[in-house]
Amino acid sequence: MNGGRSRRAARAAGVAPRRHTPQRAAVLRAIAESARFLSAQELHARLVADGVSIGLTTVYRSVQALARDGLLDIVHDAAGGRRYRHRPAAGHRHYVLCRHCGHSQPVDADVVEEWADGVAGRTGFSAVEHTLELTGLCPTCTTAG
């Protein structure tokens, strides 16, 4: 994962691209290599274990910048903490997240997008954004009881 995509995404979103740093690149690489959502603390521990010299504050700042640049999806865990996952394409996705193990599954939510666009049209609001979080128990956790 290189900084070129981050800078292009920022320009496409109409914001000034952020400074590309080795630490930010390491954070993005660690997230992109993960199959699940990670907390900033988990990212920090993973990076330190891999020999990356990075502070927890830098990890927090990096995920905030990467999320603003449209490179991360964010969900909230059962305790309200933020968890991050690489967003492989433009736009945002919706997920159903297991409350027990944290497993996530992307879901098709075109109807939600259409509804949000309709709300904007009916109310006259512009730049309408939305957040949708679906939680439940995954099949493995349901079977395990």
Write a brief structural summary:
The chain has 145 residues and is α+β, with helices and mostly antiparallel strands. It has six helices and five strands, in the order ααααββββαβα.
Description of the structure:
With 145 residues, the protein is an alpha+beta fold. It has two domains: 1-91, Arc Repressor Mutant, subunit A (Orthogonal Bundle); 93-145, Dna Ligase, domain 1, CATH 3.30.1490.190. 44% of the residues lie in helices and 15% in strands. It has six helices and five strands, in the order ααααββββαβα. A three-stranded mixed sheet has the order 4-3-5, with no helix packed on it. β3 (94-98) and β4 (104-107) form a beta hairpin. α3 (40-49) crosses α4 (56-68). The longest helix is centred in the C-terminal third of the chain and has 14 residues, at 110-123. It is flat. The mean pLDDT is 85.
